[in-house]
Design goal:
Number of strands: 6
CATH superfamily: Phosphoglycerate mutase-like
Number of domains: 1
Distance between the termini: 30 Å
CATH topology: Rossmann fold
Strand content: 5-15%
Number of helices: 11
CATH architecture: 3-Layer(aba) Sandwich
Helix content: 25-40%
CATH class: Alpha Beta
Order of helices and strands: HHEHHEHEHHHEHHEEH
Strand order of the largest sheet: 3-2-4-1-5-6
Length: about 290
């Protein structure tokens, strides 16, 4: 695996009382064999985080957010390769899948697990794992928006922690209020725009109340949990899990279609974490994401 992006072990119980700690990340991930040599064997909570493959709107460089778009051909290939990487991890026993309710994450999960020989996994889906809502930027070209408003303003909308883009106007056809996948979600929870702080607020309860229960249950028998979601929902999770401060989270880019494996101790302190496969490929893919608005 690639080098760690986490400098300090953080327990989930401490995160609940202090959800936005102030210290950062960055040491090397020990080999799996070295971890097992420390006595953890396979019975450690084991989590895979995977951003969906490249989508049709990624290809067009459009702000997507809660808009439901499909994978393009490259995204399908990325999802398949992700499954091959997961299958190559001899000590990884995937047992439960979590996804957002957006098609690009659902199809990524389906293709990835088919390639990994795990199509039969039980599935949990939640709107709380959705991408952040880009408000009135939804459907607009990132480069053209930067030309219109300035790169600094667009970068602030895309990557700042607490500055949301302009909201959707009332009655806008891009609103998700009438979408049947959200029929059981209280209308006041359906956003018109979001910043990363809002995403952290909606993702964290789902992780602590649902994903953590699966991690604890499956770790007893050596099983792992996979979450297939989006750049900002995964950024929010890593911010909390790896104690990444607000000043650094803006620089964390999540590449499409490359599994990120996190292993915890019994207290859900992060022990080791890193991308599967070639570290240089993961770094190049993350850099490509960073250039999208430039």
């Amino acid at each position: 695996m690639s080098p760690l992006l986490s400098r300090k072990r953080i327990g989930l119980l401490s995160l609940l009382s202090n959800p936005l700690p102030s210290k950062g990340c960055g040491t090397a991930r020990p080999a799996v064999g070295a971890l097992h040599g420390q006595g953890y064997a396979l019975e450690v909570p084991d989590l895979i985080l995977l951003r969906h493959g490249r989508s049709e709107w990624n290809e067009l460089n459009l702000f997507t957010g809660w808009e439901d778009v499909d994978l393009n051909a490259q995204g399908e290939r990325e999802a398949w390769t992700a499954g091959e990487l997961l299958a190559a991890e001899a000590d990884l026993d995937l047992r439960v899948l979590h996804t957002s309710v957006l098609t690009r994450a659902i199809r990524t999960a389906e293709i990835t697990l088919h390639a990994a020989g795990r199509s039969w996994l039980p599935v949990r889906r939640s709107w709380r794992l959705n991408e952040r809502h880009y408000g009135d930027l939804t459907g607009k070209n990132k480069k053209e928006t930067a030309d219109d408003f300035g790169l600094e303003q667009v970068t602030q909308w895309r990557r700042s922690y607490d500055v949301p883009p302009p909201p959707l106007p009332p009655g806008d056809p891009r609103s998700n209020l009438s979408d049947p996948r959200y029929r059981d979600v209280p209308p006041e929870f359906i956003p018109a725009t979001e910043c990363l702080k809002d995403v952290v607020a909606r993702v964290t309860p789902y992780f602590t109340d649902v994903v953590v229960e699966d991690l604890r249950r499956e770790s007893v028998r050596g099983g792992a949990v996979i979450v297939v979601a989006h750049g900002n929902s995964l950024r929010a999770l890593r911010m909390v899990l790896q104690n990444i401060p607000e000043s650094e989270i803006t620089g964390l880019e999540i590449p499409t279609g490359i599994p990120y494996r996190v292993q915890f101790d019994d207290e859900l302190n992060v022990l080791v974490a890193g991308y599967l496969g070639d570290p240089a490929a993961a770094a190049a893919a993350a850099e490509a994401v960073a250039r999208q608005a430039g």
